[in-house]
Amino acid sequence: MTRTNPYGVAIGDINGDNYLDIAVAHLSDSSVGISLGVGNGTFFSQSSFAVGLTPITVSVQDFDGDQRLDLLVVNNDANTVSILLGYGNGTFASQKVFNTFIYPMVAVVADFNHDNSLDFAVTNYGSNSVSVHLGYGNGTFRTRTSYATMMNPWGLAVGDLNGDQHMDLVTANCANSTMSVLLGNGNGTFRAAVNYRIGSCAYALAIGDMNGDTYLDVVAVATFSYYFSIFLGDGRGSFFEWWSFLTDDNPTSLVLYDFNNDDRLDVVIGHYTGTIRLFLNTC
Question: C or N terminus of the chain, fewer CB within 10 Å?
């Protein structure tokens, strides 16, 4: 059992017993819940930890380099991100709070400035921006830096789109059905956004090589419709072709993974209606 309105979910070995555990953001009661895995597909009763108002997404990473997993929670109505440092036994220290801009939605974690400390970026739906928060390596972060996107960014993904060993960002912008590509400079800063039409608001984006050409592509769900699209990358940070595939109504989440061990990334789509569909890659 979870608390009220479970929303964002992340998985990791939170207590170091080599079994996967579940972290879930509870949208309506300002908490994140932890369900520790028994190792046989079942879980112990959930423990909850306080975060900010309307937590919408959660990530599991080691932000302070102690080999214990920590939590990053995006608090939509509080305009903050909470960092909860893990003790390695399934419990966490009280949250540390970092300001975002208006209505943060989705966060991604990566090392944006090559200092071997994890940073994070978050889409700000109400500010038409993505903000970057550079980490000190001890679970704290510098003051945010904001980069303009188009209107109402929601989905967010990270990857090296142009092969320069620097992390780049892609946002999905709901007001005009576009995606913004921000190429990283490798020092924690980003170039101005280049925008592409994608046809729908996308709550979720993912990055991977979908056609086997070694260049990263972008996958976007059409949240207010019934398809998802693949935008083929040219290895220089641009996109030259796109394909669309029908799915169920209102796709809201996606995962890329090789489910049939053929060395091709497959696509799993989750829908607001409660269905899940698997698409095996034939490229």
Answer: N
